[in-house]
Amino acid sequence: MTHEFSCHVYYEDTDLAGIVYYANYLKFIERARTEWVRSIGIDQKALKRDQGIVFAVRRIEADYLSPALFDEDLTVRTRVTSTTGVRIVLAQDVLRGETLLFQAQVTLVALTDTGHPTRLPANIRRTVH
């Protein structure tokens, strides 16, 4: 299953040349992950409140392929590539139309409210698997 998230490039996202500043791609994919989690029925506030579990990015491997520019509309595609008892690995691509601009592999882990790693709840493992 691939989740799609649309975003628009604002002036604040760019450098003086009107090119998206490299760190802002991480913001774009973070927003897309938040919407992906919501779309699969996970309430992150309830997860933290009821089970003391939060998601954290453990690792990102990113490739910048082509620049996005001021005032463009972009799409972030997110899909699960693998899961374990403690990790979810996602592929996230940022596109302008069908042109791939940025791609990342993101590893998420579950942490307790004290910051220690913990197993993903069974219902989440089933949902994302």
Please explain how this structure is put together.
With 129 residues, the chain is an alpha+beta fold. It has one domain: Roll (Thiol Ester Dehydrase, Chain A). It contains 3 helices and 6 strands, in the order βααβββββα. The chain has helices at residues 24-39, 44-51, 122-128, and strands at 2-8, 53-64, 73-83, 87-96, 99-112, 117-118. Strands 1, 2, 3, 4, 5 and 6 form a 6-stranded antiparallel beta sheet that branches. It starts with a strand and ends with a helix. The mean pLDDT is 95.
- What is the overall silhouette? elongated
> What is the CATH superfamily label?
Hotdog Thioesterase
Classify the secondary structure makeup into a structural class.
Answer: alpha+beta
CATH topology: Thiol Ester Dehydrase, Chain A
The top-level CATH class is: Alpha Beta
The succession of helices and strands, N to C, reads EHHEEEEEH
- Point out poorly predicted stretches: none
Biggest β-sheet: count, sense, barrel?
6 strands, antiparallel
Q: In angstroms, what is the radius of gyration? A: 16 Å
Please tally the helical runs, counting DSSP H or I stretches of 4 or more residues: 3
Specify the CATH architecture. Roll
The whole-number mean of residue pLDDT values reads 95
Any idea how many domains? 1
